[in-house]
Amino acid sequence: MSEERVWPYVLPFPIDAKQRRLIWSILQSRVGMSILTILRLDGRTYQRELIRQTPYSNKSIIQYLKKMVLAGILGEGMEQVATEKRRMWVKWYTPTQLGRWFILFLKNPDEIPSDLARKTIEELFQLYSSSIVEVCEKYGLSLDFFHQILNERYFKKQKEGMSEQHS
Fold this sequence. Notes:
Blueprint: H1 17-27, H2 30-38, E1 45-46, H3 47-53, H4 58-70, E2 74-82, E3 87-95, H5 97-106, H6 114-139, H7 143-166
Antiparallel strand pairs: 1-3, 2-3
Helix pairs in contact: 1-4
């Protein structure tokens, strides 16, 4: 049986069931997906920008932004800006680490700068490594098993690379 090629991306989800349900409802919604694709990875995205750049109602956008904050995907804040006529408060959002992972997941890999891809892969590997250690301790599994899998995959890839060079 040949190995099926799959997108090698694994997303972490919060342990809290309420947060997971919120995230699923966001990911299953056109409004939620639209917002996630517009959000900046670094820096603030202003509520007004999101409302202007999506075809959905203000009420829907604001409702989903609140869900994203509750789900731990976004942080929020307010700042005062001065216009020619007056000063006003504007609302902004920044992705949390979890939010950045979801935003990156939705992007075409070619659109992601290599330094950001490396940083994200390192973050995810650290997260999953600590989870593997925790699971091994909880269920009495040996970490050597996971080391062996990683080594086997690495050496298999090295061998394939050498075979391609000699062809």
